[in-house]
Amino acid sequence: MHQTFRLIIDCPDQVGLVARVSQFLADHDASILEASHHTDVQTGRFFMRHEISTDSLTLSYDRFIEEFTPLANEFQMQWKVTDSSKRQRVALLSSVESHCLVDILHRWHTGELHCDIPCIIGNHPQMKQFADWYKVPFHWVDFKTLGKENAFKQIEVLLDEYAIDLTVLARFMQILPDNLCSKLAGRAINIHHSFLPSFAGAKPYQQAYDRGVKLIGATCHYVTRDLDEGPIIEQSVKRISHSDTAADMVRKGKDCEVNALATGVRNHLEDRVIIHHNKTVVFA
Amino acid sequence: MHQTFRLIIDCPDQVGLVARVSQFLADHDASILEASHHTDVQTGRFFMRHEISTDSLTLSYDRFIEEFTPLANEFQMQWKVTDSSKRQRVALLSSVESHCLVDILHRWHTGELHCDIPCIIGNHPQMKQFADWYKVPFHWVDFKTLGKENAFKQIEVLLDEYAIDLTVLARFMQILPDNLCSKLAGRAINIHHSFLPSFAGAKPYQQAYDRGVKLIGATCHYVTRDLDEGPIIEQSVKRISHSDTAADMVRKGKDCEVNALATGVRNHLEDRVIIHHNKTVVFA
Amino acid sequence: MHQTFRLIIDCPDQVGLVARVSQFLADHDASILEASHHTDVQTGRFFMRHEISTDSLTLSYDRFIEEFTPLANEFQMQWKVTDSSKRQRVALLSSVESHCLVDILHRWHTGELHCDIPCIIGNHPQMKQFADWYKVPFHWVDFKTLGKENAFKQIEVLLDEYAIDLTVLARFMQILPDNLCSKLAGRAINIHHSFLPSFAGAKPYQQAYDRGVKLIGATCHYVTRDLDEGPIIEQSVKRISHSDTAADMVRKGKDCEVNALATGVRNHLEDRVIIHHNKTVVFA
Amino acid sequence: MHQTFRLIIDCPDQVGLVARVSQFLADHDASILEASHHTDVQTGRFFMRHEISTDSLTLSYDRFIEEFTPLANEFQMQWKVTDSSKRQRVALLSSVESHCLVDILHRWHTGELHCDIPCIIGNHPQMKQFADWYKVPFHWVDFKTLGKENAFKQIEVLLDEYAIDLTVLARFMQILPDNLCSKLAGRAINIHHSFLPSFAGAKPYQQAYDRGVKLIGATCHYVTRDLDEGPIIEQSVKRISHSDTAADMVRKGKDCEVNALATGVRNHLEDRVIIHHNKTVVFA
Q1: Scanning every residue of chain A, which has its alpha carbon at the shortest distance from the alpha carbon of C260?
Q2: What top-level class would CATH report for the domain A4-83?
Q3: What is this model's ipTM?
């Protein structure tokens, strides 16, 4: 695995922009492993992602930021450069279903997901067994005893104390309060067990069963104040038929959930996702 | 292609039912090419489809009906037996988009779809060119001149005169009046250009573009009074990304429409679809 | 979950067969939850699977066998009836890759796969950590020290001692000797990391990368003497592009492997798979 | 539809390359609608495609070539710039199956495929009916009368006379002679009715049926001297089961063929495909 810097740019589209950025990179001997561009013609917005071999560069991370800033300001960029050797800190929020949680943990354990997982938080205690095995501290925040407001305050404290970069709701069945949604904007990912916008809200598999659809799915999206309305990162579907019961749909849907969440989280961790209004650019 | 009788049964589930039906078939030497069963546990309803080699049977179509009727009555069946050598008469309703129309015509022309197509009806004249080539009479019903009510009366007259069994709305962009929906219940198939229930109503591709979904689709369903709410026969999806414009989504979506409609129509023509409340059993 | 008997029949196609079997079931008050039929026209062979609610039946498992045997003999059936409450005993054979092993274990742990897993056998010790957590005895059979012949003898002893019904090669990278293939015929399932028959043999992902295919896949099949040639139960594919390295293909392929193996094993455990020559009938 | 220039570059990877190309484009006010890059790390080869709004450019097509040439030479580029307003001339080679031919013709007729189709050539006369309707000259080259060698000479003459840019073998069941393969290298596209490299050669659906695979497919590839071994542009698959006969597989496979060929041809016509050794980079 190469050490890389990832340069992510989001700015008004202008002639000469790519030339200037490319020249900057060439001036510092950047060996570019991946480069992706996208222009949103409707909004005149330009998006760019470069993955650069760290070894090739003649400047450090701090110097990169310092030297690139004037160019970024000139082109009114929203931008960041990240260092792949600095792993993001991910908190997993769980409830009683283990499939998404265990899948993320296993991909992390085997090195497929490059991140640290300093804590798992559950509104029920059941997931502690998996946390223990993977040697990740588990915090049971008891919503029943604490009440919803205090419970979320405690979660917020935990996320702060652990200096969490990304919060993943791995079938966490609680709705985040508005202030937490705002605080975690662009840094909290949910998996919804339907092919959104179909079957938003509760019991999507039962809704799908009742409607008689021929495909079920799952949607990985950023958490926003508007429940199930956040920017979609990834969706996955599976074919079903009349012979599938609601229970069969739950079983098949779990595979969709696992796949969509793992893909969404990996793309986020590799800085491949840029949020634009209520949509995403995903340089996968 | 074998000549077959297709026996379709929909009745309350009861012990002994399959034995009695199977015994009836055995008593008349039926060679069964396909047999499919389904029990809807929630409603206690049983569905069965047999495809029987005509040559093997020791009774004619009329005698089959006569002899099977007592058994059907005993078990309170809704049932039918159809003869594959008697082709259904299909009317295609069209507007200005040709992709679904031409696909259906070509599959019919090459013998993939076993039916007659005695007429094509358009609310615009553009599809006449394709109708002419396939030597199918084309009727332009001019909604602008006639007004919607009279136009649909004229369509109803045409469907009656041509003794149409199945009406296929091949991207016909007009909403059928309630009385026609009722009259054609279970005998009119529509293709909606979204993955229903997502993006019901107008401009589904624009809706999908605006929502930023990562998969688009199409839905083939029976026409009912509740627009876009009828029993779904088939759905098809295709992956898209941020780089797809609304125009790209239209282009990719057309392939979904073509596939879902062709599959839905074929399954209907082969008596593989049974409507149960607002859902379908599809013995594909 | 219902307790069920599953009646699996494989015999020459004959008129009256279904009637007789159905009458037998009706005579004993069988409530049929699922019934599936298939006729292989080329070989004149008939396949049938019934899933029957145990509670509905007026005879025990042993009496069922006793009473059905004359009918089975009359129609020259290869047949079995299984009791869903009697779980199959599954051994997992592993090497150094954990993704398939952990996925099967997790589906078993959460009750999705109805079986017992009395042991895991590894030709390397690495998987012991997962076995320990799931509290399954782990046996390291050291191929280097023992030599291949003795190692497989030891595996055979273990399979016998644990009275194993189904052996699952969860990315076990050793080729079974002929005698063991014969002994386990129809009771050993392998996952091959390619879309067979493409890229049989070693390093399929590298082969796929070198050939420049646009989809990769995995194949779940029964083990036979002819390596990678056994009856296929399930296949799964995923789209790739020029930007995927051989390492990306390995990562994406793992998801195919996990899905194909889990589906294949579940279908086998639910007696949904019938081997016919070198192919399978899968009543999924 | 924008008028665009498409700049396609294939050269050794070097620092500064993108900067120089981007600067060249910026110097001539290029508004870049799409930019795609790929580095093949194994071979150190770099691939780039730009789609540039013609209106934005301050130089003509001829001047573009003239001015870009020194830069191209400096970086040892294999390169081309194409003008989207200059349609490629496509010949369709047909036999007796119409599905691929009619699909391509319809997409061309409705403007989805931007090209001219000046002629259709058939080794059998059946496709003339479709050619006539679309008002495309049809040439029946009678292989039986002429013999294979003379027949192909006549085809070569036709391709020359019509100044064909791209030859599409739309289920043309004849193997091109080596000299024609060489002459048309990178300019002839075939659709093979299997998921290559599985089932290369004759009767792939029968091969697939005999092997008992659970997915069938089709492969769109460039024609080379090594039959069925050319660089793959696109592949498409569809799920099948034991209940599909070889005839069902043919029917389902046709949809794969149609989709893979249409996608492959469109990508080629939009200069999205670059051949690299025996593989393709597809900037789709």
Answers
A1: A255
A2: alpha beta
A3: 0.94
